[in-house]
C-alpha cells in the first residue's frame, strides 16, 4: 500500500525543513578539517590556537581543528611540507633556510611574532646593564636553542665577538639555577620565559635584568604561520578562513589573558593556568608591540622579510642569492 501525500502538505513539509536547516548553527554542518602543527610542546606561547578552538572562532569559520605537538621548527616544517599537517607555526629563520637549501614546498602566511624572542638574562648586582658589558663575562646557553645561531651577530652589533665572552652550554633547566647561584654571569634564553626567571630570582632574593636582542640590532620576524603549497593551492578558501579565525584568536588572547590561559589548560590539563598565563603574557609582547601598531597584526612586510633573510643568511653562512625572500610569502590570505 502506497502512502499518498497531498501536494500542499509536501510544500509545507519542505518549507518547514528548509526553515529548520536555516536555523541550525553553521557548526552543525560538515566542517573542513585542518591539522595544526605546533613547533614545540603546548604552552602559553601557543595560546591562540587553543583559544580558536575553545572560543569557537574556528568553528564559526566552518573549521574542525586537530592540534599536533612538535619538537622544533624543522620537524614542524617537514610535517607540513609532506602533508601530515596543513598549517602551523615555525620560526621564520627555519622556513627560510629550508626553502633556500632544500626548496621545501611551504610558504609563510602571516607573522605570529614580529620580533625575535632571543635575550640575555643577568642579575641586577652583576654590573651588566648592556650587551657590551658582557666582555670578559661567563655566559651560559642551552645546546640546541636557535639563539645560538644569532649570537655572533648580536655580539658584533654591540662591538664584541664570541672570543670576548666565556660561553658554556648547559641543560635548559639548569640555566636559571646557574644564574641565581652566580656560576654564570648571564644566560641566553627567550623572552617567553621572563616569568619563570623572574620567579626564580624572587625565590633567590635576586633581581633579574632582561636584555632583548630585538633592542640591540637584531630585528627580524620569528614565529610565523606557515602552510604547505598544496594546502594553499588546493584549499585556499579554507586557508583564508583559518587565518581569519587565528587572528581573531590572537586578539582575544591579548585582551583576555586569563581566559586564554584557561582555554589552553582545558585542552592540555597537565599545564597549570597561572604558568600558561605567565608564558602567554611574556610571549604576547612579541606579537603586540610598536611594530604591530605600525604595520598591523600578522603583517609580513617585504623590507622586513628581506632584512630577516639577510640576518639568517649571515648567521647560518648561507649565500644570500640562494633565496628571493619575497618568494616565500603567500599573499592574499589575510583580510
UniProtKB/TrEMBL annotation:
<dbReference type="Pfam" id="PF09084">
    <property type="entry name" value="NMT1"/>
</dbReference>
<protein>
    <submittedName>
        <fullName>Putative thiamine biosynthesis protein</fullName>
    </submittedName>
</protein>
<dbReference type="InterPro" id="IPR027939">
    <property type="entry name" value="NMT1/THI5"/>
</dbReference>
<feature type="signal peptide">
    <location>
        <begin position="1"/>
        <end position="30"/>
    </location>
</feature>
<keyword id="KW-0732">Signal</keyword>
<dbReference type="InterPro" id="IPR015168">
    <property type="entry name" value="SsuA/THI5"/>
</dbReference>
<dbReference type="GO" id="GO:0009228">
    <property type="term" value="P:thiamine biosynthetic process"/>
</dbReference>
<feature type="domain" description="SsuA/THI5-like">
    <location>
        <begin position="47"/>
        <end position="260"/>
    </location>
</feature>
Amino acid at each position: 500500500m502506497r502512502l499518498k501525500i497531498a501536494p500542499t502538505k509536501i510544500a509545507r513539509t519542505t518549507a518547514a525543513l528548509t526553515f529548520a536547516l536555516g536555523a541550525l548553527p553553521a557548526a552543525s554542518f560538515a566542517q573542513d578539517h585542518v591539522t595544526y602543527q605546533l613547533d614545540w610542546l603546548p604552552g602559553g606561547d601557543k595560546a591562540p590556537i587553543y583559544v580558536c578552538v575553545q572560543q569557537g572562532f574556528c568553528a564559526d569559520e566552518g573549521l574542525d581543528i586537530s592540534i599536533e605537538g612538535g619538537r622544533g621548527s624543522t620537524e614542524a616544517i617537514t610535517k607540513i611540507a609532506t602533508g601530515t599537517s596543513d598549517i602551523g607555526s615555525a620560526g621564520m629563520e627555519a622556513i627560510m633556510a629550508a626553502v633556500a637549501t632544500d626548496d621545501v614546498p611551504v610558504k609563510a602566511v602571516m607573522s605570529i611574532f614580529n620580533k625575535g624572542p632571543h635575550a640575555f638574562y643577568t642579575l641586577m648586582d652583576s654590573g651588566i646593564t648592556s650587551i657590551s658589558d658582557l666582555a670578559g663575562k661567563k655566559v651560559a646557553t642551552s645546546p640546541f636553542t636557535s639563539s645560538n645561531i644569532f649570537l655572533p651577530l648580536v655580539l658584533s652589533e654591540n662591538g664584541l665577538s664570541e672570543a670576548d665572552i666565556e660561553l658554556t652550554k648547559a641543560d635548559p633547566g639548569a640555566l636559571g639555577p646557574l644564574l641565581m647561584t652566580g656560576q654564570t654571569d648571564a644566560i641566553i634564553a627567550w623572552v617567553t620565559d621572563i616569568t619563570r626567571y623572574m620567579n626564580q630570582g624572587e625565590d633567590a632574593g635576586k633581581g633579574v635584568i632582561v636584555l632583548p636582542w630585538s633592542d640591540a640590532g637584531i630585528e627580524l620576524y620569528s614565529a610565523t604561520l606557515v602552510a604547505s603549497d598544496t594546502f594553499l593551492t588546493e584549499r585556499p578558501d579554507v586557508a583564508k578562513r583559518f587565518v581569519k579565525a587565528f587572528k581573531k584568536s590572537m586578539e582575544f588572547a591579548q585582551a583576555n589573558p586569563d581566559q586564554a590561559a584557561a582555554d589552553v589548560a582545558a585542552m592540555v590539563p597537565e599545564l597549570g593556568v597561572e604558568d600558561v598565563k605567565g608564558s602567554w603574557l611574556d610571549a604576547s609582547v612579541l606579537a603586540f608591540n610598536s611594530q604591530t601598531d605600525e604595520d598591523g597584526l600578522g603583517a609580513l612586510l617585504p623590507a622586513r622579510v628581506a632584512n630577516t633573510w639577510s640576518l639568517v643568511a649571515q648567521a647560518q653562512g648561507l649565500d644570500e642569492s640562494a633565496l628571493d625572500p619575497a618568494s616565500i610569502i603567500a599573499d592574499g590570505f589575510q583580510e
